Structures are given as structure tokens and as C-alpha cells.
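Whiteboard transcription, Tuesday session. T.W. wrote the C-alpha cells on the left side:
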């Protein structure tokens, strides 16, 4: 068992040595070779995967980590005296440290493992509301939020009568900061906004948004689902009070994600769920809760998922998040330029700071038709409202086609996308 587990660590370390050269030169072919799925075909065509905003593909080291842990280490964490349980616990807690380092949190007490962005936001919505909000208190969100950062608060509105206020945007898809400042009242308790819009690709000025909120003594939650895969995140630099993300959008496994929260807030918030792990002592007379981060981690955690998430973050670090950001920025710039040459092209989201995502419509071709026909060419894009119906209403449309990019996408794939859109456009005359 030990030998197998050790070999798993060696696989990873050799991977680091191999990848350390990438910080000097972005070797896209080498990166692509790490993602086995990228060499498959669909409908006999090479797969062009441009749905990274929905989920990213996984490098081999991430899948290997899952297999290796189940084959060689598997045991429930935290409560076992036996060897395997301790080894599994060590891996799980080492993963927490990897996450801490990745986002530069002060302490692992501030890193809560959840099922993903959605659960992280729901946890804060429920627990923060219970701790700090009364009927009539206000939460500021923005018009470009994903449903998970709208509906979670609406549920609290139904439960406790809290009120949602909405930051508007301009036609380029940039939040109106002057209007944002006007939304604060003595009843404002939290600001909750996306780091990067999953539809427009807008990179919101989260540091400035946090500064303004803090000037009003109001904490800030940043939905980092689309930020963390594309941008270097430093929660202390942003001064985020909460920062949430999903592993599956940053080359990690599904079913696990993170809630970062400042200790002084998390300490004062009640548990979200009850169960094992989150308690100190239980009796029928009364129960005491565990310390952070375990207070918010009821039940058996996804300890294999946490290992695989850490491997994914290490993979990203080895390639270099700054290198990924430069590569993707060039790709999006190139794609925007090429796509704008297509007659009838409408691009939604022209913010000065844009990342990862291009949403578009061509003439009056329905987004669903465009997506379906691109798929037949082997090009995977997403169509629809992208879980952002209020934003669709603001844009006056029902949905878009969305191409979203990852570290492994290439200029040739952008060319294929443009050729595909042109072909579909010709079909529709
Ligand atoms: N927020 C944003 C901005 C997103 O893009 C997504 C996923 N599309 C989510 C939240 C929800 O993420 P998950 O489904 O992984 O919980």
C-alpha cells in the first residue's frame, strides 16, 4: 500500500519537473498531451472543446490521483486510528494547505471544502443571514450574476424578508461603479458579485468593489467560479471576505469546491448542516460545535476529491496561472478580432477587462441551431441563457452561443470555430 501511494507521489513530482519548463515557454502541445480527451473525435471530427466555462477537461495526473487514492489509500478521514485513515487524513489536510497557498489565505481554518460554488454560496447565504441579518436588511448583487448568486439570496428573502439590490451595467457589460455606490444604505449587510461573468467574460474590479463595501463596513463575497481558472487570485490582496469556487472549472474533479471565508466572520456564523465531523460533543441536552473549518463540514467529506483538486491546482501552478492568463488573453483577443469579421456577428460583452468567454449571436440564427450545427463539426460550445436569465433580460435576448476557453485551446481551434460559424451562417443564407 505504502509503495503504491508513494508511486503516486512520484508520478506527481516527475510531472512537476516536466512542467517547470513551461513557465519559461508555454508548450501548448505538451499541455494538450496531458489531457487524453482532447485527442478523441466526435462525429469523426477532432474534438474542439470550447465549453470550459461549463466544465474543464482533466489532465491525466488528476484522474490518476483519484484512481491511486481509491486503490492504495482509501479510508474515511479524521476519525480513524489506523494507518490508512491517517494517511487519507494527511492527504486531505495537505490538500487544504494547497488550496490555502493557491489563493493566499492566511490559514487553513479559512478553507472550507464544499460541493462547489453553488453550495458555498448557499452556505454563506443561509449561515450569514442567520448570523447577521434581519427582515429588511439588504444584499447587493449585480445584474450579471449566475442564478446561484441570485436564487440563494431569494430563498433567504422568502425565509427572512431580506432585500436584494442590483448593480446595473453599461452596454459593454461593465458594472456601473457609481450606481453601485448609491445602493448602500444603513441596512446593507453584504455585497455578493462575480469575479468574472460566465456570459460576458467581464472581469469585475473586485478589489475596488471590496474597498467601497468596506468603506461602508460591509463584507464582500466574490463568486470566483469563472475567475479562479483564468486569473491569479489572492484573497488577501482583493480583501475578499468570502471567495468561492468549484474544482471542476479549474481542471479538477466534479463534486468538490471551496468556500474561503475570513475567520472572524466564519467564527460568528452558525453551522450550515448538522452531522458527524462538525461537532465537539453531542448530548440530548445540548451539542457543542467543532472548530473551523470542520464546523462547516458535516459528514464524510469528498477526501478523494480534495486530493484530486489539489493535484489540479498544483498542475495549474506548475504551468503558471500567469502564463495561462496570457495565453487565454491572446486567444480571446484573436477570437474577438476574427469573429467580428463575420457578417451579422453580435458579441455580448466588450468590457475593457475580459477573460475566458465569448458570447455571440449571428443574424437571426437561433443560438440552439448554431450550437447544434457547430457540434456536428466537432465544436463543443454552450447555448442558452447560461443560468443568467436576468442578464439575458437586460440584453434583450433569450440566449447566446458561448465559446469559452481553457489553457489547452489553440489558435487553430479559434480558426475552426470561425470557419464553422461562417459555414452555419451560409447555410442560413
Ligand atoms: N457562478 C458562476 C459565475 C458560474 O459560472 C457557475 C457555473 N456555471 C456557478 C456559479 C455555479 O458553479 P457550480 O455549478 O460548479 O456550483
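and on the right, the sequence the group agreed on:
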Amino acid at each position: 500500500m505504502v509503495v503504491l501511494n508513494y508511486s503516486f507521489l512520484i508520478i506527481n513530482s516527475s510531472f512537476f519537473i516536466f512542467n517547470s519548463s513551461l513557465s519559461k515557454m508555454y508548450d501548448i502541445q505538451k499541455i494538450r498531451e496531458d489531457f487524453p480527451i482532447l485527442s478523441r473525435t466526435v462525429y469523426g471530427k477532432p474534438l474542439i472543446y470550447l465549453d470550459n466555462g461549463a466544465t474543464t477537461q482533466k489532465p491525466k495526473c488528476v484522474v490518476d490521483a483519484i484512481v491511486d487514492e481509491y486503490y492504495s489509500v482509501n479510508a474515511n478521514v479524521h476519525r480513524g486510528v489506523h494507518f490508512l485513515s491517517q494517511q487519507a487524513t494527511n492527504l486531505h489536510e495537505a490538500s487544504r494547505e494547497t488550496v490555502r497557498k493557491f489563493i493566499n489565505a492566511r490559514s487553513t481554518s479559512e478553507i472550507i471544502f464544499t460541493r462547489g460554488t453553488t453550495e458555498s454560496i448557499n452556505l454563506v447565504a443561509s449561515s450569514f443571514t442567520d448570523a447577521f441579518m434581519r427582515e429588511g436588511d439588504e444584499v447587493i448583487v449585480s445584474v450579471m450574476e449566475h442564478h446561484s448568486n441570485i436564487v440563494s439570496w431569494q430563498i433567504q428573502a422568502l425565509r427572512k424578508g431580506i432585500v436584494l439590490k442590483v448593480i446595473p451595467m453599461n452596454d459593454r457589460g461593465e458594472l456601473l461603479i457609481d450606481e453601485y455606490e448609491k445602493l448602500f444604505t444603513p441596512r446593507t449587510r453584504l455585497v455578493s458579485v462575480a469575479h468574472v461573468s460566465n456570459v460576458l467574460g467581464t472581469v469585475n474590479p473586485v478589489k475596488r468593489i471590496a474597498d467601497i463595501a468596506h468603506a461602508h463596513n460591509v463584507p464582500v463575497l466574490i463568486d470566483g467560479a469563472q475567475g479562479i481558472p483564468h486569473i491569479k487570485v489572492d484573497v488577501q490582496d482583493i480583501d475578499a471576505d468570502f471567495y468561492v469556487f468549484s474544482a471542476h472549472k479549474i481542471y479538477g474533479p466534479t463534486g468538490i469546491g471551496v468556500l474561503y471565508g475570513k475567520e472572524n466572520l466564519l467564527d460568528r456564523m452558525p453551522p450550515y448542516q448538522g452531522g458527524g465531523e462538525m461537532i465537539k460533543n453531542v448530548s440530548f441536552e445540548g451539542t457543542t460545535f467543532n472548530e473551523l473549518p470542520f464546523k462547516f463540514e458535516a459528514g464524510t467529506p469528498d477526501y478523494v476529491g480534495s486530493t484530486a483538486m489539489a493535484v489540479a491546482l498544483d498542475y495549474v501552478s506548475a504551468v503558471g496561472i500567469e502564463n495561462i492568463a496570457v495565453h487565454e488573453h491572446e486567444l480571446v483577443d484573436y477570437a474577438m478580432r476574427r469573429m467580428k469579421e463575420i457578417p451579422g456577428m453580435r458579441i455580448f460583452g466588450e468590457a475593457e477587462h475580459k477573460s475566458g468567454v465569448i458570447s455571440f449571436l449571428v443574424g437571426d440564427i437561433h443560438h440552439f441551431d448554431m450550437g447544434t450545427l457547430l457540434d456536428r463539426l466537432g465544436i463543443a460550445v454552450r447555448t442558452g441563457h447560461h443560468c443568467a436569465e436576468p442578464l439575458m433580460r437586460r440584453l434583450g435576448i433569450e440566449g447566446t452561443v458561448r465559446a469559452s476557453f481553457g489553457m489547452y485551446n489553440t489558435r487553430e481551434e479559434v480558426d475552426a470555430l470561425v470557419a464553422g460559424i461562417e459555414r452555419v451562417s451560409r447555410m442560413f443564407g
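Someone added at the bottom: Residues 116-118, 146, 148, 194, 198, 223, 225-226, 246, 387 surround 4'-deoxy-4'-aminopyridoxal-5'-phosphate (CB under 6 Å).
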